[in-house]
Design a protein that fits this description.
With 257 residues, this protein is α/β, with parallel strands linked by helices. It has 11 helices and 9 strands. Strands 1-2-3-4-6-9 form a 6-stranded mixed sheet, with helices on both faces. Strand 1 and strand 2 form a beta hairpin. The longest helix has 16 residues. The two termini are 32 Å apart. The structure holds coenzyme A (COA).
Length: 257
């Protein structure tokens, strides 16, 4: 267990804090391993309804620990049967069926940016920045970010980000569509917690379906419409729908246990 990752549960929100501020929250294999387990545990915990990633101090994360990169390159095939923790983590965020929020409190570099692409809600503090300097390091995009980034911000912008490795300011990231909202640094934690609470209070089954629908590739329009109509009809018969309508009629908050 590492104290460089903090996992907290409150009000149905699981918060994963990357807490290695002396190294700008650079991520080691040990940290990935703890985060992978936390994401997988969140996925199967019916009580937890939202997951939020944030960084401690003035960084979201400076990305993969550069020393760890070097060690990985030298790692021999002895441990080939077990996926490296970073791969376990990337699979965990790819496969998570429940809502994930990136609360980007500061620079998000490399895998920090990649992580945001697998999150459903990406909020940035005014001082947040984004960069994918893979090519600068002789590397290439990871974890489907070569697909997800152009889907989010367009091919021209994604090529610019990947091929130049340049730093995007929060406002530019907002204009491009990489983030959905930017908040003042001073209010950032409170604002993102308030949004996480909204997600956590929502109907969980509808939330999962919505995530799956949104993550359907945009060129599969027909399939998406069919899937929507089937699920829509199912939801119409669900207890969640009944409760929501009853609550609205009775002018009270819906309760979804
Ligand atoms: N891996 C390992 N250590 C890192 C790191 C990383 N990705 N990012 C920062 N650090 C360490 C620095 O080595 C330094 O350690 P030290 O105090 O023992 O010397 C400490 O964090 C503070 O970083 P420093 O470079 O002094 O701060 P800065 O404000 O001048 O610059 C960064 C911060 C993040 C811009 C700079 O450290 C950097 O470019 N890091 C590499 C980012 C990167 O390429 N990530 C991989 C992407 S795929």
């Amino acid at each position: 267990m590492t104290d460089r990752i903090r996992i907290e549960h409150a009000n149905r929100v699981t918060t994963i804090t990357m807490a290695r501020p002396d190294k700008k929250n650079a991520l080691t294999q040990e940290m990935y391993g703890v985060m992978a387990n936390a994401v997988n545990a969140y996925g199967t915990d019916d009580e937890a309804r939202a997951l939020m990633f944030i960084g401690e101090g003035d960084y979201f994360t400076s990305g993969n620990d550069l020393n760890d990169f070097a060690m990985s390159a030298n790692r021999q095939a002895t441990d080939k049967d077990e996926l490296p923790p970073v791969v376990q983590f990337l699979h965990a965020i790819k496969d998570c069926e429940k809502p994930m929020i990136a609360a980007v409190n500061g620079p998000a570099i490399g895998v920090g940016l990649t992580l945001t692409l697998h999150c459903d809600l990406v909020y940035a503090a005014q001082s947040a920045t984004f960069a994918a300097p893979f090519v600068k390091l002789g590397l290439v995009p990871e974890a489907a970010s070569s697909l997800l980034l152009p889907a989010a911000i367009g091919l021209a912008n994604a090529s610019d980000v990947f091929m130049t490795g340049r730093i995007l300011a929060a406002d530019e990231a907002l204009r491009m569509g990489l983030v959905s909202r930017v908040f003042a640094d001073s209010d950032f934690v409170a604002d993102t917690q308030a949004l996480a609470a909204i997600v956590a209070q929502a109907a969980p089954q509808a939330m999962r379906h919505t995530k799956a629908l949104l993550r359907t590739q945009t060129d599969k329009v027909g399939e998406t419409m069919t899937a929507e109509s089937v699920i829509f009809a199912d939801q119409l018969r669900s207890p969640e729908f009944m409760e929501s309508v009853a609550a609205m009629t009775q002018k009270r908050a819906a309760v979804h246990p």
